[in-house]
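note to self: dont lose this again. the chain is below, predicted strucutre after it. 250 aa total, dont forget to put it in the shared folder this time
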Amino acid sequence: MRYLLISAAVITLVAACDNEPTTELLENDPLSSQAPTGTIDNPNTVDQPVDNPAGNERASVPPSHGELGSSIPVDLVAGDDVEYFVRSRRRMNLDQLQAQIAHATGGRQWIANNKNQFEALAATLGRPDYISTLFEDLSAGPVFQKFLGDAARSICAGMADDEIELPPGERILMASVTPEDTVESNPEAVDANLVQLMLRFHGLSVPSEAPVLAKYRWLFQSVTHTTKNAADGWRIVCIALMSHPRFYSY
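---
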C-alpha cells in the first residue's frame, strides 16, 4: 500500500508539472535568479535576445559545422607532415560477394550440380558455424582465390554463350558490341563496351583512353586473335574483371 501511495503521489506531481507553464516554474524557482547569464565567449556579459534578426549580428552568418561562439574557418588538417589514416581493403563476406556477382551479371550465381557452390563451400570459405568458429574469415587467401576463379570461369562462360543469341538490349557482357566486333573491325564499340564493363564490375567511370583499360583491351585482342572468336575474348575479360580485388573488396 505504501508503494502505491508513493506512485500515485509521483504521478500527481508529474501531471501537475505538465499542466503548469514553463515560465511560471522558472519564475518560482529560487535558484533561477542565481543561474549564470553570461555567454561562453564572455561570461561577464548578459545574453542578448535572439528573437530579433535585425539586432542579432550572427543572424546573417551562415551556419558552420563545429561552431562555438563566432565561427572561424579552419583547415581540417593542418600542416604537410600529418600522417593520413588509410584503411586496409577488406574482402566481402559470402553474402556480399554473391550479391555483387548477381548485380554485375544480371542475377547469375555459381551453380553446379543444381547446387549453389558458394553455399556448399561456405565453411571452407570462412563462414562461421558458431560451434567450432565464431568469426568469419575474410582473408583473400589462395583457397578463396581458387574458388572465386572457378566461379568466374563458370559464370562468364555461361554469359558469353547465352549472349550470342540474345538481342543487344538484353546483353550485359556484350551490350555495346556485336559478337563479331573486334579491335580491328570496330575499335570504338570495343572501347565503349570496355568502359561499360569497367563501370559495372568495378564501379569505375573512366574514359576510353584511360590507361586502366589498356590491359583489358590487349587481353580481349589477344584472345580474339588466338581463338578467332570475339565471344571468347569477352569471356576472358569477364573472368579478369571478376577476379580482380576491386570486384570482391571494399
